[in-house]
UniProtKB/TrEMBL annotation, chain A:
Keywords: Membrane, Transmembrane, Transmembrane helix. This is Tripartite tricarboxylate transporter permease. InterPro entries: DUF112_TM. It holds the Pfam family TctA. The chain crosses the membrane at residues 18-43, 49-70, 106-130, 136-157, 164-186, 206-229, 250-277, 317-340, 352-378, 384-402, 460-478, 514-536, 581-612, 618-639. It comes from Billgrantia zhangzhouensis.
UniProtKB/TrEMBL annotation, chain B:
The keyword Mitochondrion does not apply. Belongs to the UPF0065 (bug) family. This is Tripartite-type tricarboxylate transporter, receptor component TctC. Transmembrane segments: none annotated. Keywords: Signal. InterPro entries: BUG, Bug_dom1. Residues 1-29 form the signal peptide. It comes from the Bacteria. Gene3D superfamilies: Bordetella uptake gene, domain 1 (3.40.190.150), Periplasmic binding protein-like II (3.40.190.10).
Amino acid sequence: MLENILSALDILFQPARLLALFAGMLAGMVFGMLPGLGGVAAVSILLPFIYLMDGYAGLAMLLGAISVIYTSDTITSVLLGAPGSPASAPTAIEGHALAKQGKASLALGVGFLASMVGGLCGALILSVAIPIAGPLVLALGTPELFMFALVGLCFAASMVGKDLAVGLTAACFGILLGVIGAAPAAANYRFIFGQSYLMDGLSLPIVALGLFAVAELIGMVASGGGIATKPTPLGKWGDSFHEFWRSRWLICRSSVIGIFGGFVPAVGASASTWIAYGHAMSSTKDKRRFGKGEIRGVASAEGANNATIISDLVPTMLFSVPGGPAAAIFLGALFSFGFYPGPRMVSESPDLMYMIVWSVALASVMGAAICFAVTPYIARLTRVNFALIAAPLLLIMVAGAYQGTQTFGDILALLALGLLGWLMKNAGIPRAPVLVGFVLATPMEQYFWLTTQIHGFTWLTRPGVLIIASLIVIPLVLNVARRLRRRVGGEDDTGHRTEATAGEGELPGHDSSVVLITVLLMTVAFGYALVEMLGYRPNARLMPSLGIVPGLLLSLYVLGRQLVRIRRRGRSVSLASRRELPVLGGILLYGAAMWLIGFNLATLLLLAWLLIGCARMRWITALLYGATVYAIAQGMFMLMRLTPPQGTLLNLAMPW
Amino acid sequence: MNIPDTKPKTLAAALLVAAAGLASAPAMAEDFYAGKSIEMVVPFGEGGATYVAAKFLEPFLEKHLPGNPQVNVRTRPGGGSILGANWFQQNAEPDGETILFTTSSTSNPYVLGMDAVEYDLAAMRPAYSLPFGAVIYVSPHTGIESPADLHSPDMPLIYGGIAAAASDLPVLLAFDLLELDLRTVLGFDGRGPARLAFERGETNVDFQFTPAYMSQVVDMVEAGSAVPIMAGGSVGDDGVLSARDLAFPDYPSVYEVYEEINGEPPSGVEWDAFQAIGATTFNFGLTAYLPEGTPDEIIEIFEETIAAINADPDYQERSQEAIGGYDLLPASAVTDSLSEALQPSDEVRDYLRTLLADKYDVEL
């Protein structure tokens, strides 16, 4: 075995292969940083290039990209507050809060190091795939997969924000978005309004981009300054090493949770990251900082998500069942190079297996190091007038969304969700539970259906199910016990009390009309969905009803509460929200323009508006900068081998 | 732009090409694709079986097509392949430079007449097909050792699949044809997860397509944890889906199993339905379609190219592992049978729709 480990290192340490690994890493880092373009985009863009190399080099390239995605997206999550996936949402919540407090370097440093540890743990589990990981994967039956998803969703919905009713409404709304498309348990298409675009449901990058990135972008353009209102010093890295060392065991435990996430197809990182985050919360004595910038939240989430994306490769290599979408593309690449994954491949070509382990380990360490190196430069961007960054960012987002199905539906979905995200942000409704509910709705429904079909109700007594269930039940019991003890001790929990009352009141700065409109919109959506749902087959109704019925009741409650508040205290107007309206309008108009006159012409108008109208650049600099951005956008489309959206009225064809 | 093509026009064109071809065909074909590129549209995501097969064929097409065009595999996923096929219908020109490479996921909705389908598959012209066989196997705990035991298992049979109207359809039709007493659990999100459930003992009947069978199930069979029962079969010279799968000459076809159990060859609407769906799934599993109205000249070019690829020793060597060692089927071997399978009689269509609605609760 040792001999194989060394000979694998020998295979990898060929200049061409190392170069490929490095190139893949760079691509992965860039795509991780770009909002909405995660691992899937990175590997699918690299895919055509790997065929130009030998098998080992090609695989090393993909592995390089896969290993660093969740490391580098820490930067975007922390600095922009826009997570690329549900698995980075905790980082965005805690890390961005820390960044606003001027502790960006702490969040980033711990995030990078935790990601590195997660990657290394993933590499470790890959190296023992046959004796240990394989049996573990087979031990997880359908009921356990269902429980894993359920626990993840429970954690995500209950831990975000102070207002539980609003958090749960958001999670329910996520489920509603998630059940759009084909039902897994019955042949029903749900909420597709006769559009074949919606048959596969909404795609995750578009939902993540719309809910977070578009809304953040609008806010930043409107505020007119940089991302940080005042220049944020990054701070010193030293603190982050210190904090990393203090959280080392938490990170290791989170990585183990993440590894299990990798064994659960489709649910993976979305659930495991939240479970790890919940674990961080329950293992931290002082919970008050969670949601307002708790470094342990970042540490656990980053340890878990990186471990998951690597351990996704275990079922891929052993059973040719990809653990996640990036692993699915990697599987295709393995086939193309004549490697046929299965226990036989793993035992017969240990060199390949250890080459993969080495690539992942090396990329995890180097990725973290490079992230440390480039962060100061990226942090400087946060002080530039955001309208300048917004232009390329918006174009990247459009390109990222458009690679979904290359139809106008992608753009429309992006803008509609962007509008929703903007409304939710300005109404103070947390968006992370929407994202998690969206991702987990389908796998939960599917696993629940399969579980009851295969096992009847005996599944409830399976040991694995009980162990995972204890993850929810034990912290709950402990909490109750702690509270009881406090009450017996007569100690008044003033901290919690004041916080609770603060949560009851209207959060300052939220425009009451925006809150009203958003909640009304959600209530109407739930109400409509309820009526529509009654026409579905019983088996297709189960999951939607779990989201719709409580969602409708909760949103009615929130709506009523809001109306009472308006009557009692009068309307409150948020100038910030009002000031963002023209930018929101501009971006929606850009979408309409794209539909009418195509991407190539509409983008020219967008650039003129953003650079001259918003950023107040001088004509000549605007022209130069605009031309560069335009060229880069066209380059992106070419690289992804996409034809930009064409107009229905007229279309400017590019000379190539 | 889509040129509506009528039969006489095609015929005239064919005659013209044939007449001209007598003198100059080799010269014309020689450089037909010189300096051109071909876009091979795969209506599924990267990394899927169709993508992998397309990438496998890409270099062979580049090598053997006259003029050595660049072949680019382009994925257009969505709607279970319907979106990509719709795009192809609306955008592809009949100039031989755009090919739709797809599976029964595209043809089943067409055959069943689903609403979302905007493409006319039967009007398109197949350029070549790659068979995509499948083997049905059971768990040894069922006590089933051969097809004859199928009706007397030691334990209730339970089959895990994806969706009745998708790639499970031919297998479900086979179960129906053979009147198996078996519980079907649909809702897995791929054949891989369904196989994992089989390995975990949650289900005890499964099927896998050739590549996955080779890489995963063969080991299980050797280890005694899976028992192969039958293969889907292939279309014989008589145009019936009765012959054995060329990749699995040892496993009986569904046709043979029926004959063994019932003492007579299968017939009737149940068989016709299985034959229509089974042929497009297995025998013409992966088919390259050219747009309606593609001139015969181009079809002829592909005919020769496919023959050359099949004769390429490199192809023969590498296809064994990559795709189960099937030869490519040229258009001449595909067109008629495929066209028949794509346009079953109203009786068969009604049977399929009724079966899906009554037994699997699928309304189309």
